[in-house]
Amino acid sequence: MKVKGVVWLGSPTDRYDDMLMFAKDVLGLTPRIEQQDFAVFELEDGDTFEIFGPRAIADQHEFMKEPLAGFRVDDIVAARAEMEAKGVLFIGPIHRAKGGPSAWSHFFGPDGHVYSINSRG
After folding, report:
1. 60: helix, strand or coil
2. pLDDT mean over 47-67
3. pLDDT tens, residue by residue, 8-35
4. What's the whole-number mean pLDDT along residues 80-88?
5. How far is C-alpha 105 from the geometric centre of its chain's CA atoms?
6. In the prediction, which pLDDT does 111 show?
């Protein structure tokens, strides 16, 4: 397995509106998806930044207590198998984007924080 970069960053927050305005007004990002308490920003190089407010965290992302980084790998199935063989604990299955080639799988780092491995197809 070779990590090729950090391609995804998720930011859970109880100050969703402030973070949304920061992303838009300070960073100059335009949301690709904007829902109540959830926004997805696709960056110029194809990387992704997501903001999760309290409702989104409670509904689907309850394990996200702090910002979460996603490491890009070419083959997510092989990378996960290799990491599991080395004792890494994963959270749930490999997830696949609807209508797209992206996939991700969350795991616990030795620091107790959640991270993910991601592939773009």
Report:
1. helix
2. 79
3. 999 999 999 999 999 999 999 999 999 9
4. 96
5. 9
6. 84
If we measure between CA atoms, which residue out of 16, 100, 106, 118 comes closest to residue 31? Answer: 16
**Stretch 48-75: mean pLDDT:** 83
**41: helix, coil or strand?**
strand
Nearest to 120 by CA among 61, 76, 66: 76
CA proximity to 53, closest of 39, 43, 41, 40: 39
Pull the structure tokens for residue 94: 């490999």
Q: Are 34 and 42 in contact (CB under 8 A)?
A: no
- The distance in angstroms from the start CA to the end CA of the chain is 15
Q: Where are the domains of the chain?
A: 5-119
- Which of 47, 43, 42, 44 lies closest to 6 in space, CA to CA? 47
Using alpha carbons, list the distances in angstroms from residue 32 to 14, 50, 98, 100, 112: 21, 10, 15, 14, 31
Q: What is the CATH number of domain 5-119?
A: 3.10.180.10
**Secondary structure class of 27 (helix, strand, coil):** coil
